[in-house]
Fold these 4 entries.
Entry 1:
Amino acid sequence: MMSSFLFRAMDTRAGIFLALMAAVIILVPAGNLLVPEGSPFHVPTYAVTLMGKYLTYALLALAVDLVWGYCGILSLGHAAFFALGGYAMGMYLMRQIGTRGVYGDPILPDFMVFLNWKELPWYWYGFDMFWFAALMVVLVPGLLAFVFGWFAFRSRVTGVYLSIITQALTYALLLAFFRNDMGFGGNNGLTDFKDILGFDIQADTTRAGLFAASGLALVLCFLLCRAITRSKLGKVLVAVRDAESRTRFLGYRVEHYKLFVWTLSAMMAGIAGALYVPQVGIINPGEFAPANSIEVVIWVAVGGRGTLVGAVLGAVLVNFAKTWFTAALPDIWLFALGGLFVVVTLFLPKGIVGTLSQGWSALRQRKVSADYEAGSDEPPAPPQSPSAPAKIHPKPAASRLPADAEAQPAE
Amino acid sequence: MSLARPILLLFALIAGVLAGPAVAQSDPDTLRPLINELADGKYDQTQKQIEALAATGDPAVAPALEALGEGDLYVRKSDGLVFITKKDGKGYKLTDPLTLETAGEAGRREVSKIKVNNKLRRVIRSALGSLTLRAPDPEVRRQAAEAIFKAQDPDGIEALDAALAAETDVGVRKVMEEARAAAVLNSGMDEAQKLDAVQTLSDMGNRDALSLLLATQASTEGAVRDAAGRAIVKIEKSIAAWDAAQNIWYGLSLGSVLLLAAIGLAITFGVMGVINMAHGEMVMIGAYTTFVVQELIRTSAPGLFDYSLFIALPLAFLVSGAVGVAIERGVIRWLYGRPLETLLATWGISLVLQQAVRSLFGPTNREVGNPDWMSGAFEIGQMTITYNRMWIIVFAMLVFTGLMLVLKKTPFGLYTRAVTQNRRMAASMGIRTPWVDALTFGLGSGIAGIAGVALSQIDNVSPNLGQGYIIDSFMVVVFGGVGNLWGTLVGAMTLGVVNKFLEPYAGAVLGKIFVLVFIILFIQKRPRGLFALKGRAVEA
């Protein structure tokens, strides 16, 4: 049962991706810890952290792709789940500081001492234990997504309306977390962390460990998404994306499917946030900004909506470009990012991976038919690959994999 | 004391101006000996001298008394003359107390200060009050009466009675009566007088009267106490009503801002169904157009500054409209029927526009001035109404009416509605739908530009101006019902008023969060907004 589940998750593309990820997870920390500093193969610590950050972003993109690419729910509020997971982890890290804070209070974090609070608010209880914090990382975003989705999907809020209220959700959270009396550090957020699970958070080994953990989480979530999207459940999700009413009329409880995948996606975003915080060393309300959520969507769109590998690729590529641009040509970055939004939606609606695989199968088709033409008069057999004949943009027919499909969601 | 002081200073200054030869009632030569006498004797004697000065009823002595109260009146030891002084380095600058002309300087040892104590200060205050109660300018008299009201000085009663007998201005008379009532309550007068005073204050009905009555209630007994209690209840009721009125006003004002920001969106999103995330940037472009117009006027024709907004309005409409048409022709028309892609592309455009403005004008706030007719405020009852808020409400209504007329009464509006309702049928009838799309989008963007002119008057003009409004605007349009301008109007006003009523209880930020959560819940209940369109057009 389990093995068939996993087996379904595999194919060549996933194989390549997993091999690459395995190489990255092993080589980058090794390059940092084992290779001496002078060597050209040495990976500096800042690069490890930076790449670890990219991996958490990739995980977030994966979560968005799961709901947007496969279920047609365009979330403009996924950064909210990311940030909530981050805050849960941040609270654990704050409690670990103990007496090493500026005010040296064994229980209260610095900002509470500063605000003259006498005792820990009830919602901070338990965060001194890692297992509890880890649970909250998943539960809090999951619960919020569940409640939100329960209301939204049950009353059939779809399309742009849903997008806009997800944006309102993250905006409301942004405003709320800016308040000092929320008890989450207000404007400054949570920072100045000392150690995680007893390891110094600044140490190279910890950083490498966090990097590997991020990579591992990404791989596991990738496999999970892959298994889901290639299962029967995944087929129903794609059906919901492409023709929601028809799916409902066929007897599927559309809102249950949506709610499941939406909640799962929020939990994945929470995990991404939790891995992000110890690596960058701060979490503040800025993470809730609606602009962040929309940026995630563009990562997915660049890589290829509805292709899990594409989401990961898009996240890494765009963020790499961002790092490079903001350092080299800071003024150009927003132009580039804005242009990317326009160009991708106009000219690359399938994203990089989608376009490549479309071109690849078109090439194969041509080869097959050329073979037939050159050969005998026998009529062309159905294509060997069950993949759909690559039609000209913009509306390809349904195809073998949801990963290849980019049919327009029915609005 | 601390409240009365700036006012005293103010009317002392006015009195000082009035003390010019034109209005002087007595000859300076008769006053000067009286002022010079202030230097002699102890506190008791000084008090008599102050009262003597007040008895002249000449506003010209006010500066001297004011300086005395402030401890700035000095006597020159050599000749016994009295001067108003100001510290200047090691010595003092001398000013003639009557003519207010400079009269040379003096070293620290050449002059000595005329000392006053708290009792004298009170005497001075009431003397100043009674002096100015008779001033020729009604405004000065009114301020004098208000000062007595604040000080609740029983010594002012006589002066007030005298002034009331001579007073002809109805408004000033009322203020004087109120001041007298306040003073009576603080004096040892009999019960009937006090009951009258309570009645006067009760009619006055504002917060000042309330605090006086509360003090009276605490310090008196019997009939006066009961009357004060009744008056307090009455005033509290009227204050609550005025507060509600003020909140509604603030709410309407916020609502019109929301309406202005959202109404362009109601066209592009509501009528055309295009999700334009760059809408906020159209508002920003309008605001920056205002800035540029004002800069040009400042450098080339400063006299036109009061008309700058009228010049900026059509320009902002044209600039934003042109940008809108360009966006529609360049990007959006390829994305019709794909709302999610439109959303992403227009978000990208908004980033580009923001960065473009940031590169052109810099990231900091730009100063956009208020013309004279936009600044200032007036009062209705106990409400303060600022002119800029009022004009924005008027303006929002005008824009709304104009837009309604364009959509309902012009051929262009007819085409727009036709294309919205049934694109293919409209095209079959010979309407050039692509042009209608472009122009409708341009209209929506141009309206946003006009909104930018108005918002530049009350908000910071920065590249991020539009970002603050985009979510609110979408909320208004979605809440009011897509495709319905009346819905947008009602939605904006409702959200504005609800927001302002929540603010006192929850604070500005929490209030806003509540409103957002409320809208999120509301959309669950009515996914198509308050005024949902019905019929086939909905599914199109």
Entry 2:
Amino acid sequence: MAELRVNPTRMEMKRIQTRYQTARKGHKLLKDKRDELMKQFLDVVREDKQLRERVEKALAEVYGGFTVASAVSSPKMLEEALICPKKECELKVDYKNVMSVTVPVFQLRVLSEGGSDSYNYGMAFTSGELDSSLRALSGITEDLLRMAELEKTAQLLAEEIERTRRRVNALEYILMPQYLATIKSIKMKLDENERGNTTRLMKVKDMMLQAQMTQKHDDEEEE
Amino acid sequence: MYKIAIIGERDSVLGFMALGFSVHEAPDAESAAKTLHTLVKSGEYAVIFLTENYAMQLEEELSRYKDLPLPAVVSIPGQGGSTGYGMNNIRSAVERAVGADILFKE
């Protein structure tokens, strides 16, 4: 692992050691975050999958009904029957915080004139299939919105998980080994210096002793 | 208060009129994309349903809105029945998050 280019000093080593500790703490926290996000995500996705299966099945039936309805009545009539709805949908959007990811929560409010199950056309010119498929359709409105909510949540969570995973990996496999390698190399260098110093001292001491000895020897000879 | 929109070919979306959704017909993918952009830009819609055959063709445009909290652009099967595109979306989300497909493995 490539180490950082820093001066091999004790101060620098201390600094990097602190950074390493911080990185380790951050790594642990992010890992926990990732695990929890994953748990939430899988819950959401499982529900979404079931819901989608149900909705797609229901929609297929609805379309079938419509096809029959449009076959027995003229397209113009069909459009006329549907074009001015009695109902109006409004959506209240709240936000929920899932592990610091903001996800929307939809609340449907249906404003309708007359009863909630009223059709917006007369019974005379339309077929019964239209009625039943419309009823089926309004039956899955809630499911449709819940599905939209879940799918959005899943997308947002997936993005966050991906990002968190990258961070965890970057810390674990790049940053932390880098710090460790740097600390180690600084330590080696310092030790090496220390040894160099000791040898130098020993050598100097040796030389001094030698000098003293020669001095003594010369003195003796002079006498 | 937000509204709900649906974009798709005529036969698929007609029924949603009665629900009080705001219905936008689109004869082809290009006009669907145009409608989608105007709807998103208006900021009035929290949920936009899009029929699968258009969603499939507009994947690039949709990915732009994927990471925003609103609007939720959701694909639903159209008149032609489910193509499995919606499920595929869920699968790709799982793959993106987990790194492997762990839900749909058979």
Entry 3:
Amino acid sequence: MNSLSVPHLLGIKDLNKNDIELIFKTATHFKEIINRPIKKVPSLRDITIANLFFENSTRTKLSFELAEKRLSADVINFSASQSSVSKGETLIDTANNILSMKVDMIVMRHPYVGAGVFLSKNVGATIINAGDGTHEHPTQALLDSYTIQENLGEVSGKKVVIVGDILHSRVALSNIFALKLQGAQIKVCGPLTLIPKHITSLGVEVETDIRKALQWCDVANVLRVQHERMDINYFPSVREYTQLFGINKKMLDSLDKKIVLMHPGPINRGVEITSDVADSEHSVILNQVENGVAVRMAVIYLLAEKIKRN
Amino acid sequence: MGHKILINSSEIQIILHRLACQLIENHPNLENTVLIGLQPRGVFLAERLISILKNDYQLNDILYGQLDITFYRDDFRRSDKPLEANKTNIDFVVENKNVVFIDDVLFSGRSIRAALTAIQSFGRPKTIELMVLIDRRFSRELPIQPDYSGRQVDVINQEKVKIFWTERDQQDAVYITNIS
């Protein structure tokens, strides 16, 4: 029970319920630590971690880097735009070159689905997937569930609606796996063009009316429309999307209950949610960011425990 | 696996009262002094002492916290069993305070070494002292000694000292158990 069942964190799909409980329990200890006057523990002082970001990121990269530093790991950062990848180097070569500098763990974000799995099979380091294409973003799903648990006491039995661009969202898929594992009920809501055809086979329901979805749920996790992944038009205009699926204050006030509103960021204010909603008492968006550091510390710590000492 | 009783319930009561007296002898009225119970087992001793200090010496405003040292231990990735953390509960800073660590058994001294590092996250204490119920004096791996000790015990490494508290184990007693 007090050790993870996996040597890498490639996706939520590989985890079991005990893993999630262990990560949350450990994250709670780290959350207390990052609220101390001195927010650092020496646990990982003999571990070196490389952050390989082949895709843009602000929050996730900072959050991982801070988590690593709070655990006293040595950290090196790598961004594809400033690297030899642009000179034609392959992923395995890049990773092996970094590993020959004695790196124990790699945190990787990559635009290709399965890049983390590929790396885990080809290089000798612990891999944490920080987002692979439209596939999974496991630490985001973990911090989302952790935030739900923190706000509502537990995830089991809670009704969660994921709103927006489900088709291109790794956050949505990882969240569905994580929430299912913990026994939540899930609906997805968005334009049908942005909802994968066989999504119901994952045990989630599809709702196209945002008002009905909000009335049903305890938690709404609102996603950004990922224009950068769209090669065709999935809806006529951003304005129409906002009218049909955007969440505003009036909508929330009309509900007969208070719901928890989450967003993985970055927010497009005025598109998927209005500014006053993002800053309202419903919103736990900044709590998610704080919890992100604690949850990532827990994941890194628990995986580091499995690295054999030389 | 044999075990024999080392200290019985009434002897524990006498020791606890003596430790409480020694503490307030050195820290009059516990002014500027904070008591830190080390998780998980030092907390039982700390809470017993606090109830004596409250009931018999009317010291009602004791600054008391619980410190977990898991993430400061030097055997992470070295022990066969994963380390399991407990809750830290310190809602004050220890800057310029006299800190007294309270733990049940002093063995290798490594937990105390970790606690010395961990407490610095809450400020720079003026002094740090150590109080233990049992001092296994010939088992030390680091130069650490207690300032207040309930009983010094000489046992070999194949023997384990186990402390039972009524709150958790339905009796107050200290046993020596043979683990070989």
Entry 4:
Amino acid sequence: MKFRSVFEIIGPVMIGPSSSHTAGAARIGLVARDLFGRQPEWATIHLYGSFAETYKGHGTDVAIIGGLLGYDTFDERIRTAFEDAERLGMSFEFIAEVEEMDHPNTAKLVIGDKEGVMELIGISIGGGTMEVIELNGFPLRLSGHFPALLVVHDDRAGVIANVSNAIAAQDMNIAHMEVGRKEKGKMALMVIEVDQVVNDELIEELRALPNVTQVSTLAN
Amino acid sequence: MDVLFSNVKELVEVAEKEQQPISEIMIRQEMLLTRRSREDIVAQMENNLAVMESSVEEGLKGVHSSSGLTGGDAVLIQNYMKTGKSLSGELLLDAVSKAVATNEVNAAMGLICATPTAGAAGIVPGTLFAVKNKLNPTHEQMVNYLFTTGAFGFIVANNASISGAAGGCQAETGSAASMAAAAIVEMAGGTPQQSAEAFSIVMKNMLGLVCDPVAGLVEVPCVKRNAMGAAKALVGADMALAGVVSVIPTDEVIEAMHKIGQSMPSALRETAKGGLAATPTGKALEAKIFGKDKESRDTVTK
């Protein structure tokens, strides 16, 4: 089931004019910011399919920038997101791509600052609901239905055990877990969906674990 | 994970077996799927209802989009309605004007609640706040109206699509009008099966509707499709309450909508390349709003 809540049908409460092209786009931006953990200094946004054809009329561009600034779908500041980005020191660029993707509403966000760069591909699947399908080159499926932990780590023995032990110690239940790596022994990514909201204590604990390079969270 | 229903047949069966309205089955399914409390779930829906009411109110005052393509029609229809000369009836026109009001607010980048999408956001509140004057529902019944629309929308979203880019306008205003028809039936005292019949009757008349927004904006023809969607929802509900049934079962109608959506060319799925968007006037309006060279379009950010 792609849709798991009545509020994905009756909802979201949002700034118009399009649930898929405005609200879904804002959520892709917002999730990217959450995963990056801070406001990026720059953003390059590639749009595909219907996003590329109609983004200006639908406010897809202001919505994604609004999301990157931390604005939710109902935040009226989405309307002034471009001006706000300039004031807050975030530069951005939109590229309408001609390449066809599997889903008609696809966006690739490349965001960064002096500390690092992150690349995320999100799809807006209708009614304001979105999914992240790729993060830093790792294919994944992240719906935002559950609170989630994303742990980037070196591909070494014991890392997964350490992370799951730390989660278990918080009396937290894992709903779904995926582990992927690009190349043996190099960088790997754990996506862990949990039943409860993740607390800061756990995040700090995970960051302190050996071979863990980055920890991001996604609230439900 | 266990669910109470994943199609309309199951939804009606559970409602009949439990002797509960569809809205109650939706609330129970939501509790099961999200593990949230009933109070939390109902409170969120009450908030959505409040947003819908304020969108209707704002639209009835008269709003205009920044492109200038839409706005002010809700007021025109309300004024005409009050002359007492309307041919289609006051309740129907009231629903139409309130649907238009919501979509005019949406087009002006105002605050709305998507039902199931923003482009189709007028139909559910438009019908609700019109039927309200005739049926005098309690606050709880009004909230339940939204849960009933949500139950049907949930099935369409999971078994077909509610996205214009994936399935055309039939997936958006088609779904919204069919969902509203089902909820009107429940509020008027009809059975769960009659809600399903109303859904089918309306959806069958939305099949094949393409998504062809002029200049890619959610304005032309979206606002008027919400108007007609509200009208169809009311007529479909009346037909089902009269005892008319759909020959094709609801789940098969939904499947047909899905397959029609999949076979629609991409020009007719929210790309602004076909249909009304590709008419001489549609193209001229696009050029006027964004300038001829698409790459150098100025952004509309009001």
